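Table S2 (continued). Query chain:
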Amino acid sequence: MMQAKRNTMTKESEAMETFWTTVWQILREECGAASDGMGFVNSLGDFREWRFQGALGLGGKVWHVNDNLYVNCYPEDRNAERDAMIERANFRLAKLVERKGE
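Corresponding output:
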């Protein structure tokens, strides 16, 4: 019984790590986040906001609110290019969260 519980916990942990690794990959691909996201992945979602900056400037953040994820940046840093990055990232994050819930 204990072995089965340990295996389940390991599978859950692996699934969580895979999920947060995919989130970081989206941030890298769409918003130019740094290549090293281990601190982010290791947090396993234990944050409300994470400043990753990247191509969105100093205010580039991902928010984790009510099991949803979304990206934004400071209003004064927004432009058409950054708005497009944010839109693409938020679309992909929403789809990822949706699949996680299935």
